[in-house]
Amino acid sequence: MKVLVTGGAGFIGSHIVDRLVDEGYDVVVVDDLSSGKEEHINKRAKFYKLDIRDQELESVFQKELPDYVSHHAAQMDVRRSVSDPMFDATVNVLGTINILQNCVRYKVKKITFASSGGAIYGEQEVSPAPETHPLRPVSPYGVTKLAGESYLYYYKNVCGLDYTALRYANVYGPRQDPFGEAGVVAIFIQKMLKGEQPVINGDGEQTRDFVYVGDVVEANILAMTENRTENIFNIGTGIETSINQIVNRLRGIIDPSVEVKHGPPKSGEQRRSVIGYTKAKDVLHWEPGFPLVNGLEETCKYFKKIC
Q1: For 2-171+211-235, which CATH superfamily applies?
Q2: Model pTM above 0.90
Q3: What is the DSSP letter of 19?
Q4: Per-residue pLDDT tens over the stretch 278-306
Q5: Which residue in 7, 50, 128, 204 is deepest, having the highest Cβ count within 10 Å?
């Protein structure tokens, strides 16, 4: 069986590639390396350096004829989506349509789509938010992820393409980009290891649901071949953790003497974000297995090696 992973040089995608290779799948990676790193690509995977918006993508599908597609390539910076919504839409909407068209044309059995829990739900009425929570994205990034889910629904109903959308909480772990806006854990770790002062936006009491990348990989493997009628799952821990708590845990692991300062709050930042995983537990038999403290320790070990 062959799996094509878009964004397979990136943070989450590269871990999925590793797991698929270990389980004996033939794996094809498509990544333009705009944020991913070639050194993260498993040597046993076949690599095409290509933008998902490129019409040349069809030649990859035609040549490789994948059975499954794991779609993780995306413009994932929320702040960039606000400053440049046109670019965000071309990558996350037009790029996704390009993939879906080729999935149908070359008879892919199923596509798994990396969606977003926090960005799609917006300010939550209920915590943890279930999949039935109102969908009110407050950023262009959230809008495009929701659009991606809508296109998946369309292609399933009109073209018969099976899919699963996984709405991720805040994923963290080894290989996370410490320079982007999304990777707060990686950003804080690198600052502390370099002896620099981490800056917390606002009072630090804003909360997020932090899920370890290894658990996210497990959810993807389970979802890829799951053939039930359910198509959308939250992948999170259901536990709220404040940014202050994250920083204090990291200080305990790296250096308790690290001083932290607070900067101005970011405009439009959500105050609370936490998603429930009951549906994933019931249908996929998935639940998070990495406690936060263990995941942070593993992530710190990784960054200590590369810093």
Answers
A1: NAD(P)-binding Rossmann-like Domain (3.40.50.720)
A2: yes
A3: H
A4: 999 999 999 999 999 999 999 999 999 88
A5: 7
